[in-house]
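Step 1: inspect the first sequence and its C-alpha cells.
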Amino acid sequence: MRPRAPLTLFALAVACTPSVASQSQATPAGAPPTSSSDAASPGPGPSPPPLLPVALRCPPRFDHGCSFFAHFPRDGGAPALFDVSHYRGGPVVVNERDVFVVSSATFAHVARYSKSALGTELPFDWSKGRVHEMALGDGHLVISTEEAVTDASPTAASYQVVAKTGDAYAVGTADGLVAWTTFGVAPGVWLLDRGERSPRRVSNRSASAIAADATGVWWWEPKDGGGRVRFSPRGGKTPVDVASEAQTPSQIAVDANDVWWIIEEKSGRGLRRVPKTGGAPIDVAHTKGPTGHRDGHSRLIVDDTFAWLNDFSAIVRVRKSTGVPEEVARIVELDGDVISFDLDAREVWVSVQQYDPDPNPRRIPAL
C-alpha cells in the first residue's frame, strides 16, 4: 500500500468554446428503421445551457509533464486530482465503491482507491504482468495482461486465470460472461461463461475491439480489405454479421438497441452505429482533434442519453438523439492525451498523460 499526500483541486472550469464539429447524416437508403435512441424529442423545448468544459492540467510542481488521475461532475465543474506521477497513465475503471487505475513504469501495478478516501491507496495484490486492458462488471474485475486473462474480485481476495495467453488484449464482461480478443499465433475472439471450464473461440480472426452484454458479444474483424461488425450469441458458436465497415474501429460499445463504434479519421474521430438486428452503418457525429494519439488508447461508453469518447486531448459526449457533440473536458497548457476514462452515476474518472513542452507541438486544426 502506497500512502499518498493530500491533493487538492487543481483547475477550474473554463468558458465554453466550440472544439468539435458535428456532421449528422440521414439514415442511408435501405438502412433499417432508426432505433429508439434516434427518436426526436417532443417539441422544440428550451435549449440546454452551454456545457463548461473542464480544464485539465498537471499541478505546478510537475512543470515537465506528468500523468494524473482525476474526477469531475458529468455536467462539468472543477476537477479533483487523486493520483499523479512521472509514469505514463494507463486504463481506469470504476464501480460504485472503488476506482482502479494502472500506472507504473511497466504498467504492471493496479492501484485501488476507495471513492470515500481517495488520498490513500488500498491493498490490491497484483503481480501478474503488464496490464493491457481492464473491465468491471457483476462484481468482477477482468484484466488482460502479457501472460493471461484473469478474473479477479475487486478486493483482490480471489483470482481465476481463465486463459493463459501472451497476446490477449481487449476484454469485456457482462452478466456472468467474459470475452476477450487475441492476436499472434492464436488470433480470435473468445467467450467463457463463469462456471464453464474451457473458453470457446467464436472467431479465428484478430479483433480490434469488443463489447459484451447479457445476450452475447460484438466485435470488429478484418475481411476482404475492409471489415465487418459481428455478433456471437451466448452459448452459440456461429457468429453472424451485423454491419460492414471499411475502417478499423478503435472501440465498440452496445446499448439496449444499437452497436456503436468509433473510427480514426484524418482529423478527429467518427462515431457510427447500427441496430443490433443489423443493417448499414449510420454516421452519427464527427469530432475534430489532433491527427495523432501517441499512446493509442481510446474509450467509448454509451449510456441512456450520450455516447462518451476520448478525442485525443479532450473528452466528448455526443447526444444520441441529435448527434450533437459537447466537449466535457480538455487538457490545457501542455501537449497531452486523455488515455482512458470511466463513468459512474455522478462523475467522470479520467487518466491523462501530459508531455514535456515541445518546441514543435502537435498542431490542433482550426475550427
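Step 2: inspect the second sequence and its C-alpha cells, then contrast the two.
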Amino acid sequence: MSERASNSSFNAERLAILWAPVLSARGVLMLCRPIIRPMQGLHLTADLRDCAGSPSLMTDTSALRALCLAAVADAGLVAVSELFHRFDPHADRQSGVTGVVLLAESHLAVHTWPELSGVTIDAYVCNFSADNSQRAHRLVDALIAAFAPALTQRQQLQRSAPA
C-alpha cells in the first residue's frame, strides 16, 4: 500500500481537485491527468541613478527597513519577515545596504550603492489567489519616490502568464 493510501489524513476530495476525470474509449471514467494551475506573477525591477533622497536610506539599515516596511504596508501587501544587512559597517559611511522583505505575496529586495548614488529594486508578487499587480506597482513607485533618482530604468516581466 502506498504511503499516500495508508495515510489516515488522505483526503479523497483533494484527489478530485487535483486530478481531471477522463472518459476512456470504453466509457470508463478514469483519473489520469493532473489539473495544474499556472503560476502567475508580476516581477518589477528598477535601477535608480543619482539618488537625491535622504542619505540615511543608502547606509542605515534601520532607515531602509522603516521605508521598506511602510511602503509594503501602504501598498496593501503583507510582510512576514525581513533581513537588512550593511556591508562593512566599520569601513566608512559609504558602505551600502541590502534589504529583503519576505511577503505573503512573494518578496521585495533593495540594494544600495551610496558610493554611486545608486539603488536597485526587485519586487515580485504572486497572482495565484488574487491579482496583486497594482500593489506591486504602488510599492515600487513609493520606493522610487523616496530615493528621488535623477534617472530611473524600470523593467516589468509577467511571470508564467496563463496559457
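Step 3: confirm your contrast with the notes below.
The two ends are 37 Å apart (CA to CA). Residues 3-34 form one domain.
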